[in-house]
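Minutes, project check-in
Item: structure for the 228-residue chain
Input as provided by the requester:
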Amino acid sequence: MENALNPQAAFYRVARLNSQLVLDGNWDKPAWRQVEPLTLTHWMGPYPSFRPAVQAKVLYDNEALYVIFRVEDHYVRAVATETNGRVWEDSCVEFFFSPDLNKPMAYFNLEVNAGGVALFHYKDPNNPGAGLPSVESIATIQRYGSLAKVIDPEITKPLIWTMEYRLPLSVLRPFSNFAQPAAGVRWHANFYKCADKTSNPHWITWSKVEHPVPQFHLPQFFGVIEFT
């Protein structure tokens, strides 16, 4: 179950979706109810005055991955409105993954702010000119958040928000010779929460990252997700 690059990698089993899933941000709906969550517990940088509680769940079928985050938060903002904008400066949940184990340092990063605006890149250190997913292909990543698209001024009271999305596998194929999700297939991945420019900046990870300052773009610390 280990990531050869990270013997202490976190591990999560991704169940197959066997029913219809309609995106509505509902953490407790039937499709998600029996799915075990993963929890983000590792903090990077200085501890914030308020520490959000963050969980995620993942499902898959032959066509897509489905991800939902649940955040018990306090200081929430979302001002980035353009695709591939500076969403990480907002209240933001992130899924980084390396689906080709023959290229463990090449990865996708999907970052979605609390308003549902996405940044989606592909990075391959051995092929920096590989290109990026187009704005049109990113638009096929369906998203549903429980909050408004723009949150400005910042919400400064406790609240729970969710972000749910469907990531079509077709978006990945131009960039990666990835292993098709199926029972026993493993990818490397990490899940993050950040809020760089809120009044309560913080950086949380699922699989622990050893780095002196907050930095998520370190695939050597990714955990392992195994499809069942």
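Outcome recorded: Residues 30-33 form the longest helix (4 residues).
No further action items on this chain.
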